[in-house]
User: What shape does this take?
Amino acid sequence: MKRPKFFISSTIYDFSDLRSAIKYFLEQQGCEVFASEYNDFRKPLDVHSFQACLDTIHRADYFILLVGARIGGWYDKKNRISITQREYREAYDLHLRGHLKILNFIRSDIWNLRADRLELENYLKKLNIDAKTSHLIKNHPTKRANDSEFIINFVDEISRNKETNDALNGKGQFPSGNWLHVFNSFRDIADVLKPEVFDGVPIDEAIMRQLLLSELREVLRKSLVKFKKGAVYSPTIIIKNFYHEHKLEKNVSEEHYTKVNTKQWDILGTFSISLLGLKLNPLILPQALSSSVFLRFDSGKGSFEEEPVYYALQLLNQEMKSLTEGNTSETLAVVFEHSPIRRHDGGTKIKVKSIKLLKFLHLLQRWSNVITLSNSIIQFLEGATFVMPVIFEKSPIPSMNKELAEETVTQEEVSEFIKNNLLSG
Assistant: This one.
């Protein structure tokens, strides 16, 4: 995934700490940040610093504009164009061409100054004062801003007020990139950046999710059965159909046999050919399980808790391991032992050694579970609400699953054990 690149534009001196905080915040999310006061900013010796800044904007995906009380240096003093204003105009031109997005921020006191000056202007119009005097009164310097006229005009430019009014009068289209976010502190800016740029997801987490999505789609591609173009299947339904017709016994000896419906056996055998050579050794899934991507901090409890999908990922990891370990020529040999070409009669039933049958069915269940879990997790990673799917239990014999569940230590029992040992210790 490409690392998003940001250019921060503002006067440096009145925004020094804020620029540093934004740069640190974005870099912690895995972004690249261009800020002229740092050494990561290109500063070619044969180009003026103004032009170097403008050139760097072309490398950015996002342009962050901070508007405060100071004008900063002039890019064109005669025409009253500041350096920051020139950078904004360069960025806006790129924005119109679809090359970057603009995020505008204005200090709340400057926003309030603009509102105050508009009220003052309306009041002065009611008085019998000449235009020159009215202009001097309206734009007199204050502690907030020593050139309020420039600042207010710049804010109007960013807001694209003229274009908006023209559009309202049917003279053109409404402008884009003209949102102005009023802020008091860094937190206000961070709250805007997270949903606007990352949809609330840090870039490292987004990268992990995308890599996991790609890996699981590849797992699904390898695991599904294809008979012809457009005919792609999961073995789940044929396994369920088999169990619907056959009741397996729990206690079987080495010489015990199970009578199996010939037609259903051949369907199972046809599907299971796709298992030949299937090995699933995920790289991203184990990393996702050992990271904090699917953990969320519960402020009420003061601890991290697993998202619902985390348990599904654990199960999927276990099922992949079991499928890969159990998918051997020995397990699949039973299919070839009872294939149509090796059968001499055309009966409706065949006798299969029960132990071999159970091992084979256990493998098929792991195969089905890998497909079912992968499908549900993929849907979640692509934006759907996660729903835990119904999957096959550990054993092909239903009564065995109840016994296995009773023998398995639960998390509640682990907690109780810890509690009792703490009290006794």
